[in-house]
Amino acid sequence: MWLSVFDSESEEECLYRATILHSGLLPASNPAAGGLTFPEDRYAFRRGHRFPVLLPKGPVDPAVYTQAHYFVTLELGPRDESVVAEYPRAKVDAWVEVGEGISPLLERLDADARMVLFGGEHPRPMRPRFQMAGDVDESASTALTLAERRNQAERPLVTRRILRRKRASAPEE
Q: pTM, whole model, 2 decimals?
């Protein structure tokens, strides 16, 4: 798996290849899971479904042990600057309804023929989406800023992203 971490100041995303070493329940999920502690290290904690925050190295806050439902320990590889994570494009229908009066063929049909062909329903002329200028919503696949991510009430901990190799930049003249 890959771990995505954002620098709070620059909002730069850093990607690390990660391996899950341990995972389990904590007391908020199962009282029998109490008594577990971790050594001083960096850790992330999230309240509810908010965006998690990576905290500096130090002891784990006792409130985290009582409020957390589960834990995961990761082994991180070195930062991988050769890849970039992109959000998949939003799925859109391949066809878009264009409305009445667009099709000369439909305009020539009399009422009886429309009844036979469409069973009393109004026809729904459609065209392929790629023929409609400016019809694809590019904003649906753009990344949110760090502030926008933090303000989301519902944020999945694991998201599906597409990893691509960074393109080599052209040499400067």
A: 0.60
